[in-house]
Prior knowledge:
The chain has helices at about 20-30, 50-55, 70-85, 100-105, 125-135, 145-150, 175-180, 190-200, 230-245, 250-280, 280-290, 295-315, and strands spanning about 10-15, 35-40, 60-65, 90, 95-100, 115-120, 145, 170-175, 205-220, 325. By secondary structure, the protein is an alpha/beta fold.
Amino acid sequence: MIRSDASVCVIIAAYNAAATIGRAIDSALAEPEVCEVRVIDDASTDGTDVAASAHDDGTGRLSVRTLPANAGPSGARNFAIAASDAAFIAILDADDFFLPGRFAALFATSDWDLVADNIVFVRDPGTVRRACVEIGRHHIEPRRLTAVGFVEGSISQRGRYKHEYGFLKPVMSRAFLDRHGLRYAEQMRLSEDYHLYVRALIAGARFRLSAGCHYVAVEHAHSLSSAHGERDLEAVEQAIVELLALSANDADLHATLRRHLDQVARKRRHRAFLSQKRSLGVVRAVARHAEHPGRLLATLTDIARDKWDGAMTKLTPRRATVDEPRFLI
């Protein structure tokens, strides 16, 4: 197999993705810079491995491996990284796909260890073709991300849906990852990308944003992130605590990470209260949180806001079709 300095291994960690895995694979194999597409079937039960193998283009670039037990996205990705020797690593979620020319555009950017483009979110993949004109003219200002800027841009804001930098899917230099011993944290099943990127930035990574948009993220009514529970958020909290220790000598980054930790802890308490309310009843759930009245008030305020937002959504007339793309940045 001929490799160049721009050889990319595209890693697709897939769980029960038989319906979409072919589209993802096809989009990756269409990129001439891609020397490997490694699909890691994370112990699926729907024939994901068979569906993936059916999209082998005969070039020898596709590899499909099935794990004996579910390892989560971090474990599956680390498995693929260990099996590859490509110069660059790119992650593609099994529901998503690349637009043509992605890697040529990214490799036109210089002086980076990680480089990412914008992401367009769609509900119907068929709308992408109709929206290509808008995607083509939606350019962001190319820039280098600092650790503080990345964490700041990863803190969610009410009314700003999916605009956090943690969703970015950069191409990563294998040499940089190896030099600093960076891999995905396998205890995390939520925000594992964010954690890896911040560790890379703390280690001195040059993380650049390019102007284009060649990554399509397909949304679903019930996203996987909404199914994550208290334990997953506890793992994110612990990961940010570790990042705080790594950033002890950077006052600005330390303060920004502390803000993010406070937000994640608030979300975790919110999830815990709702779970206890379902299992114990509202009175006992309130009693469990009563020793921290300020936190309890914040949780109850968040619940009230969610109910209000839900009511307003029901009262707002829905459009007949939703075909306008939304962009991460």
